[in-house]
Each structure stands twice: as C-alpha cells, then as structure tokens.
C-alpha cells in the first residue's frame, strides 16, 4: 500500500498502524528495534525533532519503505550529490551508510 505523507503526524500514524497490525506493544517494538520507548512515543505522536538515523531504523525494522517522487532529477545528478555527502561524512570521521 502506498501512502502520501505530508507531515510528521502522518508518519507517526503509519508507524503506529503497522506496529499494531504486527501485534506489538509500543515498548516491545522499541526493544526489538533498539530504540527507546520515549523515541517510539514521540515518533508515533508526530514529534518533529527526531533523530533521522533512529527514524529510518524504526521504519526499516517495521518493513516500511520510503520512496520520494522527485521531479526532473537525473540519476547522474543524484549520484553526484550522494558522492558529495559520503565525502563530507568521511571528512567528519563518520562512516557513510
């Protein structure tokens, strides 16, 4: 199922629905996904200042895939920007993901 997301509250609703469909309590999901219960609560309630890494960790763990519909962007331009991002992360001492 594809869902159009326009804000953090909609992401939270999707995460909550998928978690509940899987029969998981919020605290159990947090433990399985290696995030804190507080993070899960904030995510499911549309908090806008979350850590991106943890957000994607939860999304992946619940089997939620993120796809962007980007107008007029060629693969070469995107690859160039990805390479620049990896280089910046490397210079900061962080391994690219």
Tell me what the structure shows.
- It is built from 5 helices and no strands.
- It has a domain at 8-61: 434 Repressor (Amino-terminal Domain).
- The protein is mostly helical.
Structure characteristics:
mainly alpha; 0% strand; single chain; 434 Repressor (Amino-terminal Domain); 97 residues; globular
Indicate the CATH architecture of the domain at 8-61. Orthogonal Bundle
Query: Secondary-structure element sequence?
Result: HHHHH
Could you say what the CATH topology of the domain at 8-61 is called? 434 Repressor (Amino-terminal Domain)
Distance between the termini: 27 Å
Oligomer: single chain
Number of strands: 0
Q: What fraction of the residues are assigned to beta strands by DSSP?
A: under 5%
Q: What are the low-pLDDT stretches, counting only 5+ consecutive residues below 50?
A: none
Characterize the largest beta sheet: strand count, sense, and whether it forms a barrel.
none
CATH H-level homologous superfamily name of the domain at 8-61: lambda repressor-like DNA-binding domains
Tertiary shape: globular
